[in-house]
Amino acid sequence: MTDENKPVPGDDLPEPVVQRPRINASLVWLVPVLAALVGLSLVIHAWTQAGPTINVSFQSAEGLDPGKTPVKYKNVTIGRVTNVRLSQDRTHVVAKIALEKSAQGFATADTRFWVVRPRIGLGGVSGIDTLLSGSFIGADVGESQEYKDDFTGLESPPPVTHGAQGKTFDLQADDLGSLDIGSPIYYRRIQVGRVSSYHLDEDGKGVTLQIFVEKPNDQFVTKSTRFWNASGIDVSLGADGLKVNTQSLATVLAGGVAFQDPAGPHDATAADENTTYRLFNDRATAMAPPDGEPKYIRMRFSQSLRGLVVDAPVEFLGVPFGRVVSINLDFDEKTQTFPTIVGAVVYPQRLGRAHDKLVALAKARGDDEQMSQMMGRLIEHGLRAQARTGNLLTGQLYIAMDFLPNAPKVAYDPTTRPLEIPTTPGSFDKLQEQLAEIVDKIHKIPFDSIGKNLDQSLGELSQTLKQVNTSVLPEVKTTLQGAQQTLGNANNMFAPDSQLQQNLGGSMQELQRAARSLRVLTDYLGDHPDALLRGRRADQPLQAQPAQAAPPSAPTQGSKP
Amino acid sequence: MSTLPRASELGLIGCHVCGLVCRDIRAPDAACPRCGSALHRRKSASYSKTWALLIAAFLVYLPANLLPITRTVSLGDVDDNTILTGVVELWVKGSPYLAVIVFTASIVVPVLKFFALGLLLISSRRRSQWAQRQRAKLFRLVEFIGYWSMLDVFVVALLTALVQFGFFSQVEPLPGVVFFGLTVVITMLASMSFDPRLIWDGREFDD
């Protein structure tokens, strides 16, 4: 403005040089615009990424960390817990979860949420990784498209996630036993599924379990498959020894379900989803042929049935085909006895082919549904019920139905309901009776008096012996001494130098001599028999008068006879 | 005001870089004949440049504070921290001094810079003669403390480089720290583009 009229000091000052034109300074405004664009893009990004916000209620906030705990589906983070607060009534906690945009589909009606924490149970260990990384919320999405933003979290992970391939079946059981959600399902001891849920039946008379069998093993569940509770240990003592049967150690502790098709021909088409099966208590019952319709029968026993309990088996010719359901005492006024009325449920179908044939026969003859006439005929042929001892140690009884050909005839009324089967005392009872009789007879033997008499006799005997000892024995002693003396004498007598011996020797010589002379005589007499009459002839020449030499002695001898 | 004549009154212009005084030829593209740097009486478009950079810095400062700057992974425990939550965590975990330092460097200083520059810009634009000395001192303070705000960025850079123990402990930088660094750089640029002589320009002078 005022440059010209002011003195300019130092005109020799250098002149500035003119350079290339500089960049327009207003371009600097591009910087904030760029910054704004970046900021805006961030905002838009965040806004487009933000998915729905949902509330999930849990029993406890254990492991839930606001701002940190992620929500994962198949281990991919789909959201984050932003806030955890108590519910209005303070009974549970509500976790607010900001889902990502891509996880919008998780805010639908059938999505399930649960907290994944380390779990150590009988069935196994899970969620160990969360020990270090902290818990996270697991999610499982369903098919539903219906929007929902308020959920109730599960307390334990669902055993079956939605996308899992396989089939769900229902099992009906009397009670839950040791089964639980997540209990394994075994097929030939390979785990093929899990119990996914259970609930009481509406009437409270049973439990329905829902199980999930994974593909491809679900094809083994056929229309005739039997399920049984494989929990615990089955110990059976049979004729072939002790058998212990379990599925796996985990099953022993935590329970499980096993299934298999029955042996023999059966319908092997794969079962449809949600087919209902019965859950049997053990394999044996499960694999037994179908029981068919139960029938109620009644038996009247006159003897005591100690050892017979409800549920004791009823066997027909050794085939178990029913069980005892009631045992009641009755009073018979006529005989003043207390018979026992035993009620039993029998499943005639268990008899298999026999049953089929009997039914066919009964139908052909126009029998009624209860086959009472058929029964009548069988009873006529000696069908009787017996209470038999199943176990000698415990005295457990069972009911056996057998044909006893020489059973006494009984009156049978085919119109009574339930059918009444005549009974006969059991073989063991008979044995018992006979034993009792024997014992009775033994009892009648007067052991007391026998004993007394025996005692007396023994006393007397002892007295006698005493007498013998005191009086008889000394005499015996003296007698023996006498005998000894006598023997000594005898000994002396027979000694070689004794007189007797010598006398005897002399006598013997004399006798010898006598015998010799007798021989001479007989010889002479043989030659001269006349010498007997005439006596000995006078001595002649030897040849002329041999007989005359004998007369001197002959008279004594010849005159004697 | 001052009775001394101004350079512009004398038709003179000084080089910012080498200090050579030349005649003011009032050409927009004049350059120092000695060192070749651009010659201008006042920094050209100082107001608009500073404003633009200040606004840009502020815009960048928002995500710098809202976005997490570090991710600390310790034994599988993942922790994302923004500047403020980091400060709070430091305070809670028993390092209040550190917390104060980080807070000062990362929150107080940038905010102070925004306010100081804004104040200087507005007051100078209005050719206010209020507390000119103090304003000049304030500007020098802003220039001086500007780069200290980079502390946070350095901390993150160092931690990221040093704490790499895989699963046990790991620190990762997150986008927030980039924005924060940008904030610091842009505020420094803004304070650089502000010409402190504008403070002294009275009402009677034109830009």
From TrEMBL, chain A:
Bias-annotated ranges (Low complexity): 540-561
Lineage: Bacteria, Pseudomonadati, Pseudomonadota, Gammaproteobacteria, Lysobacterales
Cellular location(s): Cell inner membrane
Protein name (database record): Intermembrane transport protein PqiB
Keywords: Cell inner membrane, Cell membrane, Membrane, Transmembrane, Transmembrane helix
Region (Disordered): 534-561
Domain Mce/MlaD as annotated: residue spans: 51-137, 166-226, 295-402
Membrane-traversing stretches: 27-47
Pfam families in alphabetical order: MlaD
Membrane in keyword set: yes
UniProtKB/TrEMBL annotation, chain B:
Pfam families from the UniProt entry: PqiA
InterPro entries: PqiA-like, PqiA-PqiB_transport
Main location: membrane
Entry keyword annotation includes Transferase: no
Keywords: Cell inner membrane, Cell membrane, Membrane, Transmembrane, Transmembrane helix
Membrane spanning stretches: 51-69, 97-123, 144-168, 174-194
Compartments, record wording: Cell inner membrane
Keyword Transit peptide (UniProt): no
Protein name: Paraquat-inducible protein A
Species: Dyella halodurans
